[in-house]
Design goal:
- There is one protein chain.
- This protein has about 350 residues and is of the alpha/beta class.
- It has two domains: about 170 residues, Rossmann fold (3-Layer(aba) Sandwich); about 170 residues, no CATH class.
- It is about 45% helix and about 10% strand.
- The protein is built from 16 helices and ten strands.
- The strands form three sheets. The protein has a six-stranded parallel sheet.
- α1 crosses α2, α6 runs antiparallel to α7 and α9 packs across α10.
């Protein structure tokens, strides 16, 4: 059984394994964000602004183990007339020296779903870095990912021979990690507030259901919210994306959100603005202010948040400084954090 880690820990562990050139295997339920983690780690490790996944100069190859057969790894047989032997001509699916980037990551996805013949063909590539007459370029590393058997997502038990070639980890969602990702990836504030309010719905996965609330499906729901669809269409599509139960709760939360005081009005008159009494509304207004505040309105936000229970001020200011780190250098924030260090640190 592999060690369970949250996404931020997985990023640290994968970075260490890439440095050591040890093949890594991420396991986890569908929708947990394994592919996104692999891409983020590759960008950071190679110090890239953008991954190149198509054409010449590729530095990240998403290699789906379920979509190939052994000949795709070994290559096509061809005749070397001079030597009078048959050789294997490698396929263009794998990284090639002089054509692709000198350094990159080969991401072998859906490895636990792959046929045993494919898993067998991967033995040499993963451990010895060659298969047939193909050799993986020296600057390329390997990360693999797959679903867990217990999630019943077409995954089978990986052969022990292949499994022994990896350092394993099982990735499970973390509300704090997802919220930090959502803030930095411009997810709608109302969705972030909802996950704060109902963090257990970030990972409401049941393999018996076709539709589940997961980090991936919630990000899709964020696109639906941002689209400003007609209310009935939005409500149906949210339930069709994250499931009827979680969707009903998110739709109810959106009604609360849309009845909040205007965040700009709160920041203009923080002493007189109404303070909500129910938890859902408090989570909502705290997140809305964190999304809207700037260095010229931070003092007003702090004045308003000090009228709520302390945990909401801590949450809101953490979200605000995650979105805009320069806010942490303002006089108002420094004074507030010094006065509330028992809560904030």
């Amino acid at each position: 059984m592999s060690i369970t880690v949250k996404p931020s820990d997985a990023i640290e562990d994968l970075t260490a394994l890439l440095t050591l050139n040890i093949p890594a295997l991420m396991l986890g339920q569908p929708g947990v964000g394994k592919s996104d983690i692999a891409r983020e780690v590759t960008r950071a490790f190679l110090k890239l602004k953008k991954l190149i996944t198509r054409g010449e100069g590729r530095n990240f190859i998403d290699f789906r183990a379920t979509l190939i057969d052994p000949v795709d790894l070994h290559g096509l047989p061809t005749v070397d007339k001079e030597a009078m032997v048959a050789r294997w001509l490698p396929m263009g699916l794998l990284p090639r020296a002089g054509i692709d980037a000198d350094e990159g990551v080969l991401f072998i996805d859906e490895i636990t779903d792959a046929d045993r013949s494919i898993q067998g063909a991967l033995y040499g590539l993963v451990l010895d870095r060659f298969v047939g007459e193909y050799t993986l370029p020296a600057g390329w590393k390997i990360i693999a990912a797959g679903n867990r058997v217990e999630d019943r997502a077409a995954a089978g038990r990986m052969s022990s021979a292949l499994g022994n070639r990896f350092s394993h980890m099982t990735v499970e969602p973390s509300a704090d990690d997802w919220i930090n990702w959502a803030i930095n990836n411009d997810q709608p504030a109302e969705l972030i507030a909802f996950v704060r309010f109902r963090p257990e719905l970030l990972n409401d996965f049941d393999p018996a259901r076709q539709i589940n609330s997961t980090p991936r499906s919630l990000a899709m729901a964020g696109k639906i919210i941002d689209a400003k669809l007609p209310a009935a269409v939005e409500a149906r599509r949210i339930m069709g994306t994250i499931g009827e139960g979680p969707g009903t709760e998110l739709n109810a939360f959106l009604k609360v959100w849309r009845n909040l005081p205007n965040p700009d009005a709160v920041l203009m008159n923080p002493a007189a603005a109404k303070v909500p009494e129910d938890s859902a509304s408090r989570y909502a207004i705290s997140t809305a202010l964190a999304k809207r505040v700037g260095d010229n309105t931070l003092d007003a936000m702090i004045e308003y948040m000090d009228r709520l229970p302390k945990e909401f001020a801590v949450m809101s200011l953490r979200d605000a400084t995650t979105r805009d780190p320069e806010l942490a250098a303002t006089k108002g924030f420094i004074q507030w954090s010094a006065a509330n260090q028992d809560f904030y640190l």
